[in-house]
Amino acid sequence: MFDFSLGEMLVVALVALVVLGPERLPKAARFAGLWVRRARAQWHAVKTELEQELANEELKRSLQASRQALAETQTELHTRLQDAQTQVRALETGAPAVADELQDAAPGTAQDPPR
């Protein structure tokens, strides 16, 4: 994280020893270590929360796309069901000319080439 060489760290340790003295230096080092650990833990918590939010957002987008595809499929199936019901009614009423027209116009009938 910081670009300190060994010599620079020794100079900082020597200055801290002179300024704080030998009796307060260990306590100050523990205090600094505690704050560094707390900062790292906080950073880790923020990072984890951000990653979870991004994953949740991706899941929401995927769910929305799936819902849209399902709605489109439902609409298509509903339309085809109505067409089929119209054809059945036409056949039941004995109107073969109308049934033939509907059959010719309906997608996916026997006249269409296989895909």
Labels describing this entry:
mainly alpha; rod-shaped; 0% strand
Written overview of the protein:
This protein is mainly alpha-helical and 115 residues long. The protein has 3 helices and no strands. α2 packs antiparallel against α3. The mean pLDDT is 84.
Using the CA coordinates, give the radius of gyration: 37 Å
The tally of helices reads 3
Helix content: over 70%
Low-confidence stretches: none
Helix/sheet category: mainly alpha
Query: What order do the SSEs take from the amino end to the carboxyl end, as H and E?
Result: HHH
Shape: rod-shaped
According to DSSP, the number of beta strands is 0
Largest sheet: none
Could you tell me how far the N terminus lies from the C terminus, measured between alpha carbons in angstroms? Answer: 61 Å
Mean pLDDT score, rounded? 84
Strand content: under 5%
In terms of topology, how is this protein built?
Layout: H1 6-20, H2 25-92, H3 96-105
Helix pairs in contact: 2-3
Quick recap:
Helices cover 81% and strands 0% of the residues. It has 115 residues and is mostly helical. It has a domain at 26-105.
